[in-house]
Design goal:
The complex is a heterodimer of chains A (about 150) and B (about 450). Chain A is mainly α. Chain A has 8 helices and no strands. In chain A, about 75% of the residues lie in helices and about 0% in strands. Chain B is α/β, with parallel strands linked by helices and about 450 residues long. Chain B starts with a helix and ends in a 5-residue tail after the last helix.
C-alpha cells in the first residue's frame, strides 16, 4: 500500500503508475475519497473506462461536491488541461460511448453543465448502458439543488 | 522525553541547510529560515501549497527525490538538482531526502534538506575558463602551437600520430582532435593496443564470426566496423604485433578488412588517430614497427613535449589541480608554499602531468587545518629528489617504469613488503628493481 507514491505519480501526471499504487491503497481503504477522485482520472487516461465509471458512481453517490469542487491549484486537479487536450485531439472517435463517458466524468471536475451534456449523448449512443440513468439523475438533481440554493 | 514542536522548529531554523517537509499529498507543511533565505520564498506563501508548484524542479516530473526514497526505501544523499527561486530563476542545489512515517510505519510525508551549490558551479565555470583548449591547460608556446595545429586540421580526415612520453596527455589531445573535427558527431572509439593478446586484438578491431576460434560463440562486430564514418584512437600502437600492423595498413590504404574467420571483404571509413610513448625511430630500426605503416599514420605528427620541457605550464597546472581537488575533497586549499613550488619547478617530472596531478593530490589529502600546501606534505619522491639528476639520459620506457613504481610506492605508503606482495615478487627482487630505477633511497 503506498498512497503517497500514488499521489506523487499523479502529481507527475504518470497516470498508469499512479493507478497501480492508488488501486492498491483503495483495496484496503475503500472509502478514501481523495484516492478515488484521483483514480477516476487515472483510469480514464489509461483507457480503463469501466473501472473509472465504477469509482465515479461510488464517489458521486457519497459526495458529488467532492468532485465538482476539485480545484486545479489547491487540489492539483488536471482536468481543465485534460479536457482541452482530449477535445482537440483528432484521432479519437468522438461518436464512441467511451469518449462521451470519459468527458462526462472529467468535465464534472470542472463544469457540471458540460458533464451532463456528455452523459446525455452517451445515453443516446447506448440507452442500456449500466446505471447511466442513475448518473444522469444524480447530476441533474445536483444542478437543480444548486439552482434552488442560488435563488 | 520528546522535544516539543516549537523547539523542533527552533532547531531547524538554526541550521544553515534549507529544510522543508511535505505531507503525504506533497503539500508543504514546514519550511525553515535557511530555505526561505536560499529560495526567497516566504513561509506564509508556501505552506499548504504543492511543492512542485513552488520549486518547479525538473525532477518533480521525473525523479522526485521523495518518490525515489519511497520506491527504494533508502534515503537519498547529495542528490544534485535545481529549484526555482522567488525571482523565477533556477538555483542548483544538493539535497538529501527522507520519508516520514507514522507509528504504523505508513508514509505520512517527506523531508528535504538542501544547500545552495551555486558557488561550486561558479568555481567549476571559472575552472573551465582556465582550461586553455578542450579541457587542457597549456600556457607555454609548445602547447599553444599544438592547440593551433589541432584547430588547423579540424577539416581534415588525415591520420594523426601523437608521440609523447607517458602522462603527457596524449589521450586528451586525441579527444580534442576528435571534438574539433568534422566527424565530431560520429562514433569515437578508443582502444589500447597493448592490453590485448594478438589473437584477441584482431577480433577486437575487425570482429569475428561464430566458430572463428574456441570462444567465438557468436558473430561479433569489430571496432573498425562500429566506428564507420567516425574516428578510432589507437593508443600504444607501437605495441601492435607485426601481423596486425599489415591489417591496419590495409584499412588505412584501402578502407577494407575481413572479420576473423570470414573471407568476405568489408569496407569502412574511419579516421585513425594513433599514439605511442616509445621512441618510434628505435622501434623502426629494430623492425618492431613497419615503416610503411609509420608513414601512413604519421601524416600529421604531433609531438607532445615532456613536462620538463614546458615548465612554465607547471604553475597554471598546479593552480588548476588545486581548484579541482578543492571541489572534489571539499577543502579550501588554494596556495602552495614558495619552497614547495620551487621544488615542483626544479623536479624533472618523469611521469609528466599525470605525476604532477598525483603529487598535488597526495599533498592535498595530507594538508589539513591549512589553506597552504607546505613542502613537508609533498611525497618523499620529490623531497628526496636531487636536482642534479640527468633525466634526459633516461629512456621513455625506464621513465614509465619508474613512474609506475613511484605510483605503486605512493599507493602503499612506501611499504615495500606490501608493494612486493602486490607485484607478486620477493622483497629482494623488488629491492634490486628499485636500485635499478634509482628509487632505493
Amino acid at each position: 500500500m503506498n498512497e503517497m507514491l500514488g499521489n506523487q505519480y499523479f502529481m507527475a501526471r504518470n497516470y498508469s503508475a499512479a493507478q497501480i499504487h492508488l488501486q492498491e491503497f483503495l483495496n484496503s481503504n475503500p472509502n478514501n475519497k481523495f484516492a478515488k477522485r484521483k483514480i477516476i482520472i487515472c483510469y480514464t487516461q489509461t483507457g480503463k473506462m469501466e473501472d473509472a465509471y465504477k469509482y465515479f458512481i461510488e464517489l458521486i453517490d457519497v459526495d458529488i461536491d467532492f468532485i465538482v469542487n476539485a480545484h486545479p491549484i489547491h487540489d492539483d486537479c488536471p482536468c481543465p488541461e485534460l479536457v482541452e487536450q482530449i477535445e482537440n485531439q483528432n484521432n479519437l472517435n468522438k461518436d464512441s460511448l467511451d469518449y462521451q463517458l470519459m468527458l462526462g466524468m472529467i468535465w464534472l471536475y470542472c463544469d457540471v453543465e458540460k458533464s451532463i451534456s456528455y452523459f446525455l449523448t452517451a445515453k443516446e449512443i447506448n440507452p442500456d448502458y449500466p446505471r447511466i440513468d442513475h448518473v444522469i439523475n444524480k447530476i441533474l438533481n445536483y444542478i437543480s439543488t444548486k439552482q434552488i440554493q442560488k435563488k | 522525553m520528546s522535544i516539543p514542536d516549537n523547539l523542533k522548529d527552533h532547531i531547524l531554523d538554526s541550521i544553515a541547510e534549507g529544510v522543508f517537509t511535505v505531507d503525504k499529498n506533497f503539500k508543504i507543511n514546514f519550511i525553515n529560515k535557511a530555505a526561505e533565505k536560499i529560495t526567497g520564498h516566504k513561509r506564509e506563501e508556501v505552506i499548504g501549497r504543492f511543492c512542485k508548484q513552488i520549486f518547479r524542479s525538473e525532477f518533480c516530473f521525473t525523479d522526485c527525490p521523495i518518490a525515489t526514497v519511497l520506491k527504494t526505501k533508502k534515503n537519498l544523499y547529495d542528490f544534485e538538482s535545481s529549484i526555482q527561486v522567488s525571482d523565477g530563476s533556477q538555483k542548483p542545489i544538493k539535497l538529501n531526502a527522507a520519508v516520514l512515517y507514522n507509528e504504523m510505519e505508513e508514509p505520512t510525508g517527506g523531508i528535504i534538506s538542501f544547500r545552495d551549490i551555486s558557488e561550486f558551479e561558479a568555481i567549476s565555470k571559472s575552472l573551465l575558463k582556465d582550461l586553455q583548449f578542450q579541457g587542457m591547460i597549456g600556457h607555454s608556446k609548445q602547447m599553444q602551437d599544438i592547440f593551433d595545429l589541432i584547430e588547423e586540421i579540424a577539416d581534415s580526415n588525415a591520420p594523426v600520430f601523437i608521440h609523447g612520453e607517458s602522462g603527457t596527455g596524449k589521450e586528451l589531445i586525441a579527444n580534442a582532435i576528435q571534438k574539433t573535427s568534422i566527424r565530431k558527431d560520429k562514433p569515437y572509439l578508443k582502444i589500447n593496443c597493448s592490453v590485448f593478446p594478438s589473437n584477441l586484438l584482431a577480433s577486437e578491431l575487425f570482429g569475428h564470426i561464430k566458430g572463428a576460434f574456441t570462444d567465438a560463440i557468436k558473430d561479433r562486430i569489430g571496432r573498425f566496423e562500429i566506428a564507420d564514418k567516425g574516428t578510432i584512437f589507437l593508443d600504444e600502437v607501437a605495441e601492435m604485433p607485426l601481423q596486425m600492423q599489415i591489417q591496419l595498413l590495409r584499412v588505412l590504404q584501402e578502407g577494407t578488412f575481413e572479420r576473423v574467420g570470414e573471407s568476405l571483404t568489408r569496407f569502412t571509413d574511419v579516421r585513425v588517430i594513433a599514439a605511442t610513448n616509445v621512441e618510434i625511430k628505435d622501434a623502426l630500426k629494430k623492425g618492431k614497427f613497419r615503416e610503411d605503416l609509420f608513414y601512413r599514420l604519421n601524416v600529421i605528427p604531433i609531438y607532445l613535449p615532456p613536462l620538463r620541457e614546458h615548465k612554465n605550464d607547471i604553475i597554471p597546472l598546479v593552480k588548476h589541480f588545486l581548484a579541482k581537488f578543492s571541489i572534489y575533497y571539499k577543502k579550501e586549499i588554494n596556495e602552495i608554499e614558495e619552497h614547495a613550488l620551487d621544488l615542483l619547478l626544479k623536479y624533472s617530472w618523469p611521469g609528466n602531468i599525470r605525476e604532477l596531478e598525483n603529487v598535488i593530490e597526495y599533498a592535498f589529502v595530507r594538508t589539513n587545518k591549512s589553506t597552504v600546501i607546505e613542502i613537508s606534505k609533498l611525497p618523499p619522491s620529490l623531497t628526496e629528489f636531487s636536482p642534479s639528476e640527468n633525466v634526459k639520459q633516461q629512456t621513455f620506457s625506464s621513465n614509465k617504469e619508474r613512474t609506475d613504481m613511484l605510483v605503486l610506492l605512493e599507493k602503499f605508503k612506501w611499504n615495500k613488503t606490501d608493494v612486493a606482495k602486490h607485484l607478486r615478487i620477493g622483497r629482494t627482487t623488488l629491492w634490486r628493481k628499485l636500485k635499478e630505477l634509482n628509487l632505493n633511497s
